[in-house]
Amino acid sequence: MTAERTPLYEEHLRLGAQMTNFSGWVMPLQYSSIREEHRAVREAVGLFDLSHMGELRLTDDVLAQRVVSRDLGKLRPGRAQYAMLCNADGGIVDDVLVYAMADGSHLLVVNAGNQDSDFDWIRSHGDGAVLNVGRDWALLGVQGPHAVGLVQRLADQDVSALRYYAFAEGKVAGVTGIISRTGYTGEDGFEIFCANRDASRLWRTMLEEGRDDGIRPAGLGARDTLRLEAGLRLYGNDMDAATNPLEAGLDWTLSLDREFIGRDAILRARDKGLTRILVGLRMLDRSIPRHGYPVVNDGERIGVVTSGNVSFTLGYNIAMAYVPPTLADPGARVGVDVRGTAVPAEVVALPFYKRPHPK
Amino acid sequence: MPDLSGMRFSQSHEWVKTDGDSATVGITEYAQSQLGDVIYLELPNVGQTLEQGGKLGVIESVKAASDLYSPVAGQVSEVNQELKEHPEYVNQDPYGKGWIIKLAGVKDNSALFDAKAYDAFVQGQSGS
After folding, report:
1. How many CA atoms lie within 13 A of A339 on its CB side?
2. A27 has which bridge partners?
């Protein structure tokens, strides 16, 4: 199967990006250096192509309530929420952002690799009330301490007044779209949805207008190291259909007082007691923990690393890992098996990094 | 561009520069560009004997961990300690301050590419 291209594919090549295959899409891994792109997002502003992400539009309110883990009745138009799609066993089908649109419909922003399976899965629970619009839309991420100022200068309205997880329909650089105060980096900023045909214009204007802000295009490499520092889970790495949201430490995304698919199984799992839970690990030496490395204790395998890397911001190495609840409290010591050596690590609270002054 | 004329290169993208029976070893510009940001190196101890083509250590970039191989046989006489604090030197200056180890008792490097042959080998690998 040929990898799909976003409408910004040519822009990435022009910028000399190293391209990679990700979830069936050919995407920029890095333009210059992951370290430099990471730093630009933490200290200035980074520009991401997120057009591979899927968007599903649900016009059936009852269906939306049934498949999404949170009570959408409480989500006012103009606000977005992070939520789970679960299967009947309580396993995570996908993690999504749900946008409550002005017309009463819901927009689900879903992982690139899941957009078609999510669509099929939702359709299997209610016919005809869901549209797969992901390939019609581009999505640009503008993230970092200078992001709000930059987007504000180009916007047709006061977007700096938008609260975190709020959005507005409007224009940026003359391009009509949805301007959303959301992100996946741990920094303030926006994600801007627009039509495919407008994506290049918006992308180029951002890079030009953001020059004095220190803007850099940032690839999936930096996106991964940034989201890890921010303790944000990556679907397929940190959780999947065999993981329930309680194990993934995502209890806060569940409205367990109402019906949704997977709720009963999740309640049963809770009552039975969890056997594993996702924690943060701080490595106590310089070895790099990576996805799939065993977590050990007294020579026995007790868990597994799901994400790990250097933290450029903190200056040490970090990981997310599943461990038994008895070893899940901050301060607990475990080992990570790095090529046959048990490297000491300490359980720490998530997120590893929090930006200095969140809005 | 540094002068590579006195260097020899392996298929696994290490370089070696010999001086009598001692040698300095690093990874090539092509290797560092493929690895991306280097963040950690696991290196042998001084005194350890390495075979030609034998495992020298592990180099970790943000993207992945990769094995390093010794382009020649010899005994480790020095390890670049600077790389502990500054693994990025491998990216910034792979033929200079990003050198990785020095070897003593080195004899033969005839099986390796010269700069021109290595260049052709890389062109073939990258398909460009």
Report:
1. 10
2. A20
> Using CA atoms, how far apart are residues A190 and A170, in angstroms rounded to an integer?
13
Question: Cβ neighbours of residue A277 under 8 Å, at least 6 residues apart?
Answer: A246, A247, A249, A322, A323, A324, A325, A328
Residue B67, chain A, CB below 8 Å: the answer is no
Nearest CA in chain A to B87: A286
Chain A interface residues facing chain B, Cβ-Cβ under 8 Å?
18, 29-30, 33-35, 221, 225, 286-288, 290, 309-310, 339
Right CATH number for A275-348 from 2.40.30.110, 2.60.120.380, 3.40.630.30, 3.30.2010.10? 2.40.30.110
pTM of the model: 0.95
Query: Is the CB of residue B88 less than 8 Å away from at least one CB of chain A?
Result: yes
Torsion over CA of A226, A232, A238 and A240, rounded to 10 degrees?
-130
Residues in a beta bridge with B40: B60
Beta-carbon-side half-sphere exposure of residue B56 (alpha carbons within 13 Å): 29
Query: What distance in Å separates the CA atoms of residue A318 and residue A228, rounded to the nearest whole number?
Result: 8
Residue type, B9: F
| Class of the domain covering A4-53+135-229 | alpha beta
pLDDT in tens, A4-37: 999 999 999 999 999 999 999 999 999 999 999 9
Dist. CA A131–CA A117, nearest whole Å: 13
Tokens 């046989």 found at: B73
Residues A88-105 pLDDT 10s: 999 999 999 999 999 999
Comparing CA positions, the residue from A112, A137, A242 lying closest to residue A198 is: A137
Q: Are A286 and B65 a contacting pair at CB < 8 A?
A: no
A80, containing H or E segment? strand A80-86
